Amino acid sequence: MRPVPWQTRASTVGSQKFSTTFVIRHTEYSERCSVRENSIHLFVALDPMPHRIYTYVLSIVGFLVLLGNTAAIPEDAPLVFDLVRIPKPNEGAQRSSRRAQTFSEGASFGKRDTLVAVEQLQQKGNRMGIKLKLNGGTYILNLDTGSTPTWIAHSNFKCFSADQIPISIAKCGIGPDTYKGTFMALDNFRTAYYGGEVASGKIAKETIEIGGKKAKDVQIGFANELTWIGDGLTVGVFGIGWGIDNKERESSVWQKLCAQHKLPMQFTLAINRYQDGEANGGSVAFGSTLDGKPVTPGNGWTTVDAVSLDRGWHVGRFEWAVDVDGAITKEEICEEAIVDSGDTMIRLPKETVNAFLAAWHPDPKWDATPNAWQVDCTAQGPDAVHVEIGGTRFLLPVKHNIMIKGTNGRCYLMIADAGTFSLSLGLPFMRHVIINHDLKERKISFKPKVYTT
Asked: Transmembrane stretches, by residue range (predicted)?
């Protein structure tokens, strides 16, 4: 899930907004890519009350200030958490823009200390949940690489449809264990995501606990109004994008956690397949790789720059290839793409998606209800797709990954036109790679995730 480029406090909702887009053009790439990759779009939103903008969510203003310019000596072992997956009816089709022992290494990733948090993944919105402890309660939040804020639904929240019509709490789909405690409100917040979901409420500074490790004075939002497509399990979002720590913007919770425990400012995420089961969703490690080995080519890693000026983890260019009966068609994609665990789809340029759809027989049909391409479950199509980043090709199977079957008996393709939004390498990609996110070095590294079953 990705927040929209501007974010305001709830107190400014309804005031007039002005925006402008700057385009910076530069290229050093091939002639094939020169048209697309030359454009970097900066969206700037202006508010009549400038002291009320950008209070909670990182936006594209100013220069990036990285945390931890000097290397910190870890005082603790990295935090390694397991993930479990909780599926939901009609799974996989609806976008919310929201430990397998089968790795090629031969075994599941071990835990570095005895304090472990359980993570949960649900399939309808493709949401993984991390257990966060706060004031004596435990809350399952959606682990989202595409956003920075962390917020929890308060028990008194109200839910609204996309056109701001009140709807029932049950229809909102928020999990049952919402926050019922008290807090000292410091300000208002409002976070709007590209998928149309919105959370707003109050901000507080709290002490939280993840995997037995506490982090003090972290900024948490307590949502009292939601426009949401929930999964019945998670009660908020745990953003693991990056933020700037200054007077106007707060670092994300994971950054505070690493800084306070003197861990390297990085995390590694490995997400499993649908078929690996509800209790077998994957693993995430804060402050290290999952196996403890350094991120080097010799250890199987391919590293590229995290190129975006915006929040989140982006790659600058990649190659897309489609394999149909051994015949591989390649295309170089020369736009930024966010690597987003909150997105059920891989989102590509329109012409690329059209070429992929043309490889299916019978033709896929658009289903407006889940906003996805529906395909006959016995249709003939590509055997696999490949994403090449930094010179390394990553194989993505189509069956049970690009094409999935919902509980309604229909099959859907997890490939979509990005439209006016940025391209996205969502969960169908992330299930087949291990990804290290290094904030200090502004690098993102990929390692093939090879299943043995």
From this structure: 53-73
